[in-house]
Amino acid sequence: MTIQTHRTLKLMRNVLLILAGNTIYALSVVAFLLPSGIITGGTTGLGLSTQHYFNIPLNVFVFGFNLTMFLLGALVLGKKFALTTLISTFFYPVALTFWQQFPIISSLTDDPMLCTVLGGLMIGAGIGIVIRAGASTGGMDIPPLILKKKLGISVSVSLYVFDVCILIGQMFFSNVEEILYGILLVMIYTFVLDKVLVIGKHQARVDIVSSRFEDIRQAIFDRLDRGCTLLRATTGYLKNDQPVLMTIVSRREMAALDQLVMDIDPDAFLVISDANEVRGPGFTKKKIHREQPSE
């Protein structure tokens, strides 16, 4: 497969993911939020406030606001981001209008708790799918991405803060139950969004202290087909030089690594920690196999 073909396939995959994510997002709004009157965050929440105070249709406001945020995102986040987000800017309002043509969708349930839970799950999943494709659903999803780039603030954290502010703006025309369900909705979809963003990316970093580090190092190469790094260290009590093996494995490989180390050195010391995301050969890039230097 040529590099150009690979890039084309990746672009097509990302476009499909963006369309799918926006479709799920729009469906959740029409099926669970609008019928129940639950307040929400994001562009939709701003649109509900605007619709209440100024009688501007939701889909009209969403299109105008998305277009404004799109121009801001293009300026700060670059052309590539702008091209992928352009799809959401126009497709999300269209998807909203499309789902509103089917009355049966808005009458699936009148239970506010079901609407809150299912709406939160679908919104979090929809936004997460789009962001994983390197884009956003537009609108209020863009400011958190700008903050992530400029200040390193977590997308889910800043999205939560913005959503709380938007919820406060809707409290003036909502009853207590709608407000409480709205807060729960934001908590659910923020949690789901955070989980969707790290699906398949969670790895484990394992630091191994053992006098038989050479045997363990070779076994990791041969039996797990994973790389490792030797870190220089000094023991705290005897002050002896002791190399520490550091390797990254998937959660599914963790049990195999533990068994491998224990088979070689039952007295080995292992420190296992979460690695939320790992980039490089063997993870986000193709593995590189080089010949080991001769002893």
State which percent range the strand residues make up: 5-15%
The multimeric state of the shown protein is: single chain
Poorly predicted ranges (pLDDT <50, ≥5 residues)? Answer: none
Main pleated-sheet profile: 4 strands, antiparallel
Give the helix level as a range of percent: 55-70%
Textual characterization of the structure:
The chain contains ten helices and four strands; from the N terminus they run ααααααααβαββαβ. It has 295 residues and is of the alpha+beta class. It folds into two domains: 3-197, no CATH class; 203-275, Alpha-Beta Plaits. The mean pLDDT is 83.
Question: What is shown here, in short?
Answer:
The chain is an alpha+beta fold and 295 residues long.
SSE blueprint:
Elements: H1 3-36, H2 42-54, H3 58-77, H4 79-99, H5 112-132, H6 142-151, H7 155-170, H8 176-197, E1 203-209, H9 213-224, E2 229-231, E3 244-250, H10 251-264, E4 269-275
Antiparallel strand pairs: 1-3, 1-4, 2-3
Supply the key terms.
single chain, 295 residues, alpha+beta, Alpha-Beta Plaits, 2 domains, 4-stranded antiparallel beta sheet, 62% helix, 8% strand, elongated
